[in-house]
Amino acid sequence: MEFAGALRQAIQASGLTLERIRHRLGRRGLTVSVATLSYWQRGRSRPRSRTVVVALEEILQVPPGTLTDLLDDPAPTATPVRGGLTAGAPGPGERGRPVRDLWPDPERYTNLVGQLDRSGDHRLERLSIHDVFRLDEARRSWTLSVRSVLRAAGDDIDRVVCVHQTGGIQRPGNTGGPANPGGSGDLLVPGDHEPDGAAEAGATAGVGNASGATVTGAAAATSSATSSATGVATGLASVTGAVAGVDHASASGGGTAGLADVRYCRPGRIRAEGGLMAFELVFDRVLSAGDTAVVEYEIGPIDELAHDSYDRRFSHPVHDYVAIIQFDGERLPARCYGFTAESSQSPRQRLGELWIGTSGSANLAVGAVRRGIVGIEWEWH
């Protein structure tokens, strides 16, 4: 949950009025107006003083860190929902890392998401993101289905930005096993409202989401070596590329090729370049604080070869994340693993081996994802 939502709940639970909170802050030598407190809990602005937020935790009688931890750009951590997975502890350089560093091509990411309306993204709580990634029997194309549940932490929010990667990206070697010759992605529940153009969460799939997810493989490495125009994005965002039929030369992003079966919303502006696609999903109504929205969409099929991983890049906290990898046909990978990473340049840390069932699928379920990359990788015989 983002800061605004956590603060609003803490105030409601305390039974204190904003005037009483202002008065108690004043007795501690801290001057904060009622209007400012109102803005903070509605997500219209954020505190700049950590001292004030520490005092708020004491006044509202919530555990230390309940609010202060949400001031920082959290490090990538994933608390397992099901047994057998343990996420690594945050590293020393995780806090304060720009969202765009979650992607291999930060400049391209910043340029694309900067052309979209992300004014409400920082006021959206990401309740859940569910990805279903399907790899065809010949391992020559993939399809991504995304379902995201959002809740408004402020008023007048009408859209979310999504980013996905489809071009080849060469990623750092996998510390949990043999390096995969590919790249990586997240649901940009999408779009981080930051000066550097960060987007929320996205998935990257394929060679290279608003949430952003990424898929990588041998073909991805080849593609990235031959193409200088490769990008990645995050958020409740979706990634598509030239192979998806998007007109990359069009600044208006008028086409929706590659983005299919949009449900409970409609596509807004679309921008695509160099294997990276960012787009707006406009809700079917304008949200007020506390309102929820569900968006669903599909991307693909995208023609790519021999993918060996899929991941999502989180720039905003998400309560619940589920990724399902569906392998069509009778040939299944030898092993499947969950993994996390701090950034696009960081090594992957394996969480544990995942079971591939008789349905030909494997799944990873994690809760309380804060920031970073979470995904699944597999090894063929």
Automatic annotation (TrEMBL):
Bias (Basic and acidic residues): 94-104
- Taxonomically, the superkingdom here is Bacteria
Residue stretches of biased makeup (Gly residues): 174-185
Disordered: annotated segments: 71-104, 167-205
Q: Domain (HTH cro/C1-type): give its ranges.
A: 32-67
Provide the GO MF annotations for this entry.
DNA binding
The protein's name is: XRE family transcriptional regulator
What organism is the protein native to? Actinomadura spongiicola
